[in-house]
Amino acid sequence: MAGGALKYRHLNRSSSHRQALLRNLVTSLFTHESIKTTWPKAKEAQRLAEKLITLGKKNTSATRRRAQQILYYPLTHLNTLFTTIRTRYLHRPGGYTRVLRIEPLNKHHDQAPSAILELVDGPKDMRFHMTAKTLVRERASEEGVRELTAKNVQKVTRYREGGMEDLEKEVRRMEKVAGDEEVKEKAKWKVDERPREGWKMERIGRLRQKT
């Protein structure tokens, strides 16, 4: 192919349309901490989000001007980028976002490959919650916590401020939810404790009254 390897995805759009799309996705990511879109869009938006967070960590007047040019609503999100997000990733060397594959969002039409783009160590970090759920299940089993789960615990808490405390809090919350659901399930399927013979005699008496 002339010109060498493809360095980025064009997304079947013009240059201006592509830039506007990515700016919109990144702005939504900083607003909601997690977004759902197609896999190619998520991978391209991830590159721009990583660059913006790197600008936020430098925290200079030049980086603020550059971030202001990219964000759609700079008055709302510029302060978030240079305070909350900068503080969260101050000691993390990289990997501020994560892309997770999910089932196609549009099942009835093109079934395009879809994904979740999320900020790592945020309140909507899916891997953090999945690790907590796995801990609840494995602690209740006879085998105990597996080595792979222990490595995942280290990964999700390594750069998270108060990571182990947050993880244990989430585990306790999930254990309480699981216990409440078990009680509701037992109450739902609770059988009538009346003696079976008495129930039969009552039914026979009703039939005799009808005849």
Summarize the structure in words.
The protein is mainly alpha-helical and 211 residues long. It has a three-stranded antiparallel beta sheet, with helices on one face. Helix 2 packs antiparallel against helix 3 and helix 5 packs antiparallel against helix 6. The chain is extended, with a radius of gyration of 26 Å. The mean pLDDT is 85.
Brief summary:
The protein has 211 residues and is mainly alpha-helical. Helix content is 62%, strand content 8%.
Ordered list of secondary-structure elements with their pairings:
Elements: H1 15-32, E1 34-38, H2 39-58, H3 61-70, H4 74-88, E2 97-102, E3 114-119, H5 126-140, H6 147-157, H7 163-188, H8 196-210
Antiparallel strand pairs: 1-3, 2-3
Helix pairs in contact: 1-2, 2-3, 2-4, 3-4, 5-6, 5-7
Number of helices: 8
The coarse silhouette is extended
H/E element string?
A: HEHHHEEHHHH
The overall average pLDDT, rounded, is: 85
Residues in helices, as a percent range: 55-70%
Q: Main attributes?
A:
extended; 8% strand; single chain; 8 helices; mainly alpha; 211 residues
